[in-house]
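User:
Care to share a sequence and structure tokens?

Assistant:
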Amino acid sequence: MELPFHEGLVKALLAIKIFAMGLSMPIKTIVFTSIRKWDGDSHRIIRSSEYIQMSGRAGRCGKDERGICIIRNDEQMEMNTLKDMVLGKPTPLISTFRLSYCSILNMMYRADGQFTAEHVIRNSFYQFQYEKEELVEYHKLILDIAQLEKKMMSEIIRPERVLYFLLLSGLLQKFCNELKSRLRVLKKLGHIDADGVVQLKGWTTCLIDTGDELLITEQMFNGTFNDLDHHQVAALASCFIPGEKSNEQIHLRTELGKPLLQLQESTRRIAEIQRECKLEVNVEEYVESTVIIFFKDVIYCWPKGATFAEVIEMTDRFEGSIMPLSRRLDEFLNQLRAAAGAMGDVYFESKFATSSESLRKGMFANLLYQ
């Protein structure tokens, strides 16, 4: 439905919340038929951040002078509630910066000695937020001291106060220690040499930003994908797509049993290497959280001709999440194709491209014509 709507063949689109929040198309007017949603416990009015995200689809810069948003009147809603929803504050922007092997390798490969990893950390939004929060506390303390002039000196010289502000530099030290540990991991796995020069493995990892980049690169270099057909490749690749936890009972297919066991063994090995390099890694938890196997049967069977009704019986995931996960898998397969090209491996490049094409053709054909 997205393509006909994007081309202007469909003039109006009735969309659920998930689809409405993810649309990136030339839309001029949005109509809310209801501003209540089911959150698993009760029907509630949508939050301000949800309203801003969905209403923000209306009007595109350079195409429309304005966007129009229409809300169907709800007699049970009070005016103050409506104002809070429309004029409320958006969700605060909170940094999720973390050191990953992909980011470290990209800094080493692309920076060309212009700046260090410590420079990037020190100038990151994460460090800025951390220092800002501490400075707010610091200024509040100064005001308190001004109001309590008699106790000012005793407050300033208390050892715990001094230690509190010394912790400002603790975040940078924490990241530096983590960086050293991750560099040791990269050396052990052959992504960089003893002099810190990025090797072929490292170049390949730079192109992967989905799932566990180290584990994925290992599978490309250790031959896990070699003997798999394009359906098996797509199914195995789906194990790297992040998703919600599932209580589903796993039944391994014969076609996927051996490569999945190889994948789990590699995951365990990488976890043990990271622990040896002083990173805080629980091996069993790492294996369980890194290899997501609840989606593989859907991906293996759907492009081979299974109907949508059949594949939703293969997983306990909500049916509305299957298509978004499939799209993410398609993007990931194209990342693997690009990584194979960086390796100079034409065979792998073709295999990942075929898997991606088969996934798209199989799913959309079976969805449209069943």
Observations:
- The first strand starts at residue 29 and ends at 32.
- Residues 219 and 327 are 22 Å apart (CA to CA).
- The first helix runs from residue 2 to 6.
